[in-house]
Design a protein that fits this description.
This protein has 464 residues and is mainly β.
Length: 464
């Protein structure tokens, strides 16, 4: 019995150590991307099996969808556009990207007259294209998921008049069944439930409905949620719906369609734009704060209790918009978000932005990558903190010209480390870190930056 208790105790301690280590290894960065100096809008992002990322964007004026394949630090491995020039479809707009078990990528969206599903390999080469429509109407897909049998469930609309449209295919894109839902103008989101049923988020009619595995409606639900926009299933089987206007509003609904709660979070945020499950089973909500350049996040427990609200600083002292469109959790227990921004001001219209944040929703400031250059530093540099003297918070900026492990620590006058601000891998870029000396006495302190062979120390004064 004593040995069993000892084994359990050691297992708990080991798990705690591994969790701390995993958090310490989280990579963070924020970057904007441009395909061809024209308008780009980030639509979706996934983490691929190799630990990198695939970002889906709609591109103008080429009227195609573009994919940026990134490594784990946000560096572009390849980028390709899919439009009339290479897939024979005009006005291609895509909304969703997923990865198959075989490593291929599935994209869904629409072209001039049909709903589209495109399968490409991990190098971006097209494997097949399938087009869908019904009742001689224009069609489009707004979402899809890979199903438990390896097939695809895609949802969207038929147009003029607009009605909901859902298609279930096998793994090769051949239709197994399709259905028209006349009670809705669009089916915005679809997910597969644990019992192989489907949950669908509608617009212009029924708000949420559940179907069996061939699309027959089991129950319908109506609720007052403005700008409903995202849908997810918790491992418990409960369903979460996000939306809102002046705050991020979330409905939790059980498998029978009964409301468990509807709560609002982060007052002043322009609704929940997207949400995802964390690797620990909590729910992350994302939006943007009205009247500022900050992204806003709230993390909640499954019972609806708030864990934290936080603003993600993307750039400082500006008034640009950063609108999140899609978010997903990552293997290091962080998150990756994509959307669009009107930053920087010298570029046309909008650009893609991608934020890789840690489990506490912290990240470094944004750098940029476009078709012609990369806005990263050419030298190591540690800047003097500002303000200095300070009470109790100050800002430290530094730049690194290449990827590597970075440590930034604060020491007192005896040489004792009093705070580790950074100890992780960072991509090349310019970074800003805040230091809060609230729990320290007044006096002189030193901050030291190390990366590879580079080392630099500066002095700062805390005055209370």
């Amino acid at each position: 019995m004593k040995n069993l208790i000892k084994i359990i105790f050691l297992s708990v301690i080991l798990n705690l150590i591994l969790n701390v280590y995993a958090d310490a290894q989280t990579v963070t960065w924020q970057k904007w991307y441009d395909y061809n100096d024209y308008e780009d809008n980030g639509q979706d992002v996934i983490q691929t099996f190799d630990g990198g990322y695939a970002v889906l964007s709609n591109n103008y004026p080429d009227y195609g969808c573009a994919i940026f394949k990134l490594d784990q630090f946000g560096n572009v491995e390849w980028k390709k556009i899919y439009n009339e020039s290479n897939i024979g479809s005009q006005l291609v707009l895509c909304k969703k990207i997923t990865q198959n078990n075989d490593g291929s990528l599935i994209i869904s969206g629409l072209d001039r007259d049909s709903a589209l599903i495109i399968k490409i390999n991990i190098s971006g080469n097209v494997l097949w294209i399938k087009k869908f429509s019904k009742l001689n109407r224009y069609a489009g897909f707004l979402d899809h998921k890979i199903t438990s049998d390896g097939g695809i469930i895609a949802c969207g609309f038929l147009y003029d008049p607009s009605v909901g449209y859902v298609v279930k295919t096998d793994s090769n894109g051949s239709i197994q069944w399709d259905s028209v839902y006349y009670q809705n103008s669009d089916i915005l989101k679809v997910i597969q439930g644990k019992d192989d049923s489907y949950y669908m988020l509608g617009i212009g009619g029924v708000d949420l409905f559940k179907t069996n595995n061939i699309g027959t409606i089991i129950w319908k639900k109506y609720f007052s949620l403005p700008n409903k926009i995202d849908l997810l299933e918790h491992p418990s089987g409960d369903i979460f719906v996000g939306g809102g206007v002046d705050s991020m509003i979330v409905y939790k609904i059980d498998t029978l369609g009964s409301t468990i709660f509807n709560n609002g979070y982060f007052r002043g945020v322009v609704g929940c734009r997207c949400m995802c499950l964390s690797r620990t089973g909590n729910i992350l909500l994302t939006g943007n704060q009205r009247g500022s350049d900050y992204m806003a996040v709230s993390q909640i427990y499954p019972d609806g209790k708030l864990i934290f609200d936080k603003l993600i600083i993307t750039i400082v002292n500006t008034a640009y918009v950063f609108l999140p469109i899609a978010v997903t959790s990552t293997n290091d227990r962080g998150f990756i978000i994509t959307g669009f921004t009107n930053y920087p001001p010298n570029f046309r219209e909008s650009n893609i932005y991608v934020s890789k944040i840690d489990s506490a929703c912290e990240a470094s400031l944004m750098v940029g990558i476009n078709s012609n250059n990369s806005s990263i530093s050419e030298n190591f540099k540690l800047y003097q903190n500002y303000p200095n003297p300070f009470n109790p918070v100050t800002t430290i900026n530094f730049s690194i010209p290449r990827q590597g492990n970075v440590t930034l620590k604060v020491y007192d006058v005896t040489g004792k480390a009093v705070k580790t601000l950074i100890n992780e891998q960072r991509a090349a870029g310019i970074y800003t870190v805040s230091f809060d000396g609230n729990n320290l006495p007044s006096g002189a302190y030193f901050y030291r930056l190390e990366s590879g062979e580079f080392k630099e120390v500066k002095r700062m004064i805390l005055v209370k």
